Amino acid sequence: MNILAVVPCGKRKIWDVNPDGPTEAKYVYIGPFARLCREYAEKFYPDSWVILSAKYGFLFPDDIVSGPYNVTFNDPKTNPITVDELRKQAVEKGLDKFDKIVVLGGRNYVDIVKSVFSDKIVVAPLDKYGGLGRKMSALKRAIESGERL
């Protein structure tokens, strides 16, 4: 079974600490939760993970992000990418070839991914953990132990 992991973007970005310019997507999102989700994906799905950016949509780890932005799925006024646009991207980027999608992120990310990949198996292993702190602890344990959630 082909599995794709989808990790969240985040408000904290590399330009908050180092205003160097265009950066590979895997290095852009530096908040603790986004970083742990990326580390988990790199460990367990090293060749099949993407970042879901509210501005750019699905980003491969080596895609270049040009610079700072502040777009969120939580505020429609910031003009986040739509589910229809994400569906088109999924086909264009070959993400529709995966049978199963593992979403690491909050409820909003899970719901968006389920809408995009409505014909796929979508799992959210972090759903069973309460708040953000518990989700982060679970990610840390999994990364350290080498056991998937």
Features:
149 residues, alpha/beta, Rossmann fold, 5-stranded mixed β-sheet, two-stranded antiparallel sheet, 7 strands, 34% helix, 17% strand, globular
Compact description:
By secondary structure, the protein is of the alpha/beta class. The chain contains 5 helices and 7 strands, in the order E-E-H-H-E-E-E-H-E-H-E-H. It has a single domain (3-145), classed as Rossmann fold.
Kindly provide the radius of gyration, computed on alpha-carbon positions and rounded to a whole number of angstroms.
14 Å
Total discrete domains:
1
The CATH topology: Rossmann fold
Major pleated sheet: 5 strands, mixed
| DSSP summary, beta strand count | 7
Task: Please give the CATH class.
Answer: Alpha Beta
**Backbone structural class:** alpha/beta
- Uncertain runs are none
Question: Ends: how far apart?
Answer: 17 Å
Question: H/E element string?
Answer: EEHHEEEHEHEH
What would CATH call the architecture?
Answer: 3-Layer(aba) Sandwich
Helix content: 25-40%
Strand content: 15-25%
